[in-house]
Amino acid sequence: MDPARFPEDQEDPSVPPTPAHRQRARRRVAPHLACSLIACTAFTAALAATPALRPSPSLPPPAHHDELPQVDDLATLVDMAWARSPQARQLEGQGLEARTQADSARGWFPGAPSVTVGQRTGERPGQRALREQEVALAAPLWSPRQRAASQQAADSSQAAVDAATRTLRLELTRQVRERIDALSLGGLMVRQAQSHAEALARLEAEVRQRVAAGDLARVDALLVRQEALAALSEVRRARLALLEAEHAFHVLVGEVRPAPQAARMGLPDPSRLSDADLQRLLETAHEVVAAHPRLRAAEAARQQQAHRVSWLAQSSRSPWELGLAHRREQDGDARRTNASWGLSLKVPLADEPLQRQTLAVAQTAADVAAAEVRRTHDVLVSDLLEAVQAVRHQRALLADARESTEAAQARADLIRRAHALGEVSLAERLRAEQALQAATLRVTQQDMLLAQAQARLQFAQGAQP
């Protein structure tokens, strides 16, 4: 607004407003207020005419782990993991291939026989047409020692597949036990975290009552509140870890839940091993690992490669071929017919091209398999010795942790009574509660570490359900 054009609309702040000034102000504000009311009414009408949004359909929540069917047997869990394993499907295919190779090695011929049928016609000057028919049968033959080498290669392939199957089942047993132990540890961690949070909640309620009564300061209430919130955070972290363990178990086995003692069903109890038994395992480590599925699988793979080298050496040339032919000739005079029989034997005189290279590759694979046998033996002996020592140390650590927990429990009980009598501060009691919680957690973890060490000892011995 230009002040020079409308001097009557300008107000002097030093002069009090008059009725005329108020009337002019109402005239200026009224149009703007009317426009605002019209806009609000239109917006409200449009909003009322708009259809309400429907909530999008959501997928049903997955079943809770505790609601899934329970499996009580470790062997059943291993079978379920086997059914979901891609490596198991590959071994099954290799077994079918080995059986097919064995059937071929037991056959009469190394290859498929063939039949040849032919006919020729022609003419001579002044004579009738000539006709000739021929039927020939050709069959490949086993060369000397080739059939025996082929049968040995087929049998060794089948034995290698069987040994690899036992090794894979042992590995799946180890994985299933680890997943079950992780579930057990996660459940224990959740229960301990919840117990600690509930204890701090009771302590918080007690502190609040004493603050209301004037026995404690508000600072103590804030301190215990902070500890209670930290305990609730630990509960959430423990539940998240348990969910991750449940997911890993379901990926490996399926939508089931294991029984509490499923990890040890069908296996000898390693907790009954005395120090004398552990010392005996140390002294007879080489004899113990001799029957391990991994070592037997490595030995079977070595024999498979060695027999393959022998089979390739005997099959370096094309197979011999036996031929039988019958020929029938008819001259111009239809009443004259000649028939003849023929017998042939085809013997190759040189090796097939690139056969030496194939044989060299097979010999290299055989050497690698032999080296793998020695390495596997050394690794298994080392694993067994380490597992025995780990069980010994974990037992000692568990005993120390239990003794420490007993001391922390006694100290916490004394400080609780002293705090009730007003002899120690709230901070001192909270430190005692935290020390007891940490000691209890160490016992739980140490107990689980001992179970894992015992499972590793069984795995080093090759024990299966």
3D structure, described in words:
It contains ten helices and six strands. It has 465 residues and is α+β, with helices and mostly antiparallel strands. The protein has a four-stranded antiparallel sheet, with no helix packed on it. A two-stranded parallel ribbon has the order 1-4.
For this entry, give a set of tags.
alpha+beta; 465 residues; two-stranded parallel ribbon; single chain
Q: How many DSSP H or I helices?
A: 10
Rounded to the nearest angstrom, the radius of gyration is 44 Å
Strand content: 5-15%
Task: Please tally the β strands and state the result.
Answer: 6
Summarize model confidence as the mean pLDDT. Answer: 80
Unreliable parts = 1-11, 42-63
* Major sheet size, sense and barrel closure: 4 strands, antiparallel
Distance between the termini: 96 Å
Topology pattern, helix = H, strand = E: HEHHEEHHEHHHEEHH
Helix content bin? 55-70%
The shape is: elongated
Strand line-up in the sheet with most strands = 2-3-5-6
- Assembly state: single chain
Find the structural class using helix and strand composition: alpha+beta
